[in-house]
Amino acid sequence: MSTPLRPWSVRAVNLPEHADNPVHTRDGGLAAGYAGAVVAGTTVYAYLTRPVAEAWGTDWVTGGTADVRFRAPVLADEPVEILPEETDDGWTVEARNASGTCAVLQVARAGPAPGEPTGARLEPLVVELDDRWAGYGARAGEDLPFYAETGLVHPVVWPALSNRLFSAQLVDGAWVHTRSAIRHLGGARPGDTALVEGWLLDRFTTRSGERVVVDVRVSVGHRPVAVIEHEAIVRLASPSAGAE
């Protein structure tokens, strides 16, 4: 029987480095149709992972899976409840605010090995996992001591690096992170240098705007640590109720 996951609560933090996306500022959020500055989806993801890492520890952080989907915005300084539930298919964790469910995370201790990447290759990024990256979770209010005790980088860094790839090469103005399917393949430590590679899987238009799906591979010292199928609305068509 799997170790149970415990609920948790937090007041959402809007980190200053996300201000390059206008929806993470008050004026930009209002212009995009939100009620204020929207907290980054990666920050909400960090909150969702807390019960998982607390219960499953290194096994999940270095070898587990996560599938997160964002349903509605979380605003800066808004109280958020993180509520796990065991189902027939495993564990689901929901982030809820006063308006209801704003994000859903499905997790497993392990998953299948990833296949080879396909699609048009993007320009890779090389990123040093300095304090800005290694301390992301703690700065966002995810206070689990596990990462300080083990010296492992918080898994929120992998979708955050995927966002950086998007913002550098794919987005046009305000944009919205909609989902990520993540497979952990190993751990990283503060000070490591990460190679972030991406392959464009799909590009399509919906009523909310233009979306892209990218296969992102993160490695440290030629050692793979994460594979992420990352999706975002890279050009908003009109004010909408997205997540990031």
Describe this structure in words.
The radius of gyration is 17 Å and the shape is globular. It has one domain: Roll (Thiol Ester Dehydrase, Chain A). The chain contains 7 helices and 11 strands. Helices cover 22% and strands 37% of the residues. The termini are far apart. Strands 1, 2, 3, 4, 5, 6, 7, 8, 9, 10 and 11 form an 11-stranded antiparallel sheet that branches. The longest helix has 16 residues, at 41-56. By secondary structure, the chain is of the alpha+beta class.
Q: For the record, give the distance between the C-alpha atoms at the N and C termini, rounded to a whole number.
A: 35 Å
Order of helices and strands: EHHHEEEEEEHHHHEEEE
Largest sheet: 11 strands, antiparallel
CATH superfamily: Hotdog Thioesterase
Give start-end ranges of low-pLDDT stretches: 239-244
Proper CATH architecture: Roll
Number of domains: 1
Q: SS-based structural class?
A: alpha+beta
Percent of residues in β-strands: 35-45%
Cα gyration radius (Å) = 17 Å
Summarize model confidence as the mean pLDDT. 91
Quick structural summary:
With 244 residues, the chain is of the alpha+beta class. The chain has a single domain, classed as Thiol Ester Dehydrase, Chain A (Roll), CATH 3.10.129. It contains seven helices and eleven strands.
